[in-house]
Amino acid sequence: MIRYALLMNNIINSLEDYDGAIERLQDGIENLLLLNIEENGTQVMYHFKAFEPKKCGVGFDYVFYKYSKERGFKFLKDNTKYKFLVKLLFLEIQEVIDIQNVYMEINSD
Predict the structure, then answer these.
(1) Is 97's pLDDT higher than 60?
(2) Taken in order 106, 8, 45, 52, is the CA torsion positive or negative?
(3) Are the C-beta atoms of 14 and 106 separated by less than 8 Å?
(4) CA distance to 49, 81, 101, per residue, from 8 (Å)
(5) Rounded distance, CA 78 to CA 19, Å?
């Protein structure tokens, strides 16, 4: 699963060179539903919220939240505990942007 966190960081880091690219990506996928499951008889939805630069300045953390009518909102910031959400986010981003075109454009500079 760490592989997906590294792949995500590579994508985000490569977008840093392009003014506003990270913000546009984040705006396009903010509140994206990643998973809708039942937990203990309650329907729970997991969403992506934001990219957050790590305090050490290297890489990003990913802010997710889960929501249910009964329990409300809970923000999830522990990427090691919620690795499955990082993987789902990566798979969704692959559909939102064409990764190969991004890398070709980056490598052409």
Answers:
(1) yes
(2) negative
(3) yes
(4) 15, 16, 16
(5) 28
Give the pLDDT confidence of 80-96 residue by residue, as tens digits.
788 899 999 988 888 77
Which segments of 21-98 does DSSP mark as H helices, in order? Answer: 21-29, 83-96
Q: What is the mean pLDDT of residues 58-65?
A: 86
Secondary structure of the chain: what % helix, strand, coil (to 5)? 40, 30, 30
Range with the largest mean pLDDT of 5-14, 38-47, 80-89: 38-47
- Residue 43 CA: distances (Å) to CA of 47, 51, 71: 13, 25, 10
Give long-range contacts, CB 8 A cutoff, 24+ apart: 42-50: 42/68, 42/69, 42/70, 42/71, 43/68, 43/69, 44/68, 44/71, 46/76, 46/85, 46/88, 48/85, 48/89, 48/92, 49/75, 50/26
